[in-house]
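Quick one, T. Sequence first:
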Amino acid sequence: MNGVLIIDKPEGLTSHDVVGRVRRILKTRSVGHTGTLDPFATGVLVVLIGKATRLAQFLDKAEKEYLATIQFGYSTDTGDRTGQRRGDAETQKRRDFSSEEVENALLKFRGETQQTPPMYSAKKIAGKKLYELARKGIEIERQPVNINISKLEVDNNEQRTTNNEQITIRVACSAGTYIRVLAEDIGKELGTGAHLAELRRTRAGSFDLRRAVTLEELENLAVENRIGQVLISPNDALGHFPLVVLDELGIARTLNGMKTPIFSNFNDAEFVRLCDGRENLIAIGVFDVREQVVQPRIVFGAA
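Structure tokens:
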């Protein structure tokens, strides 16, 4: 079995827990995921099965979209509701603010900016995960990283609107953006403490909740031998890459790791899907505009 599953991760499980559940349901060890979600977060988790585990490097940098609820009035040591309330009086003060003030605050975080990774994160520095150090009470200097927030707005579909206690926002952002840090920073801009109360990922790249299944639904599909109804093929998962359909000679050359002539207007160094006539993914290649060839980068083999 090879392909991609979109799991609607429940609250309380780590992303690794979800992988373990999928392994048991599908009875295979070859399972991975992209885009880790914290245990208290829910929503889209991209799970890779079989040969599709090799697609992680092409999927994990995709833009993500979230529905996030920010609680104002106090901050926590983790930046979310799972942490301990901070005792700093300055960060705990509550103030009134208008919808216009909220909009002005959000405006400051749209577009390209920088963000400092939180201590409670899986990011590694000198081989150590930051959260492991944080749990020991150790805080180290972190360098800010570049991020891009393409959408940041109050979600008007939610009942919880600006009330000086909570707002729910929609965020579309580059991979590696910490919504917990964004929540804290919005609070600072408004002059009050803040933390992330709820987080639901609604989209990862081209995969959204409309294609997601719960673990319970996946288990039922497995019992009924209907996993194929929700399994996304490796070729479809990489639908954002240009497609080249190979003839028999091209397939043979690709399977042997050889370059294949492709006369095209693809961009130089662009990733290309190399498929057979039934659009089964044979390989992922890189286009060389000068030579007008595609060099296989990852070969999956014949279907």
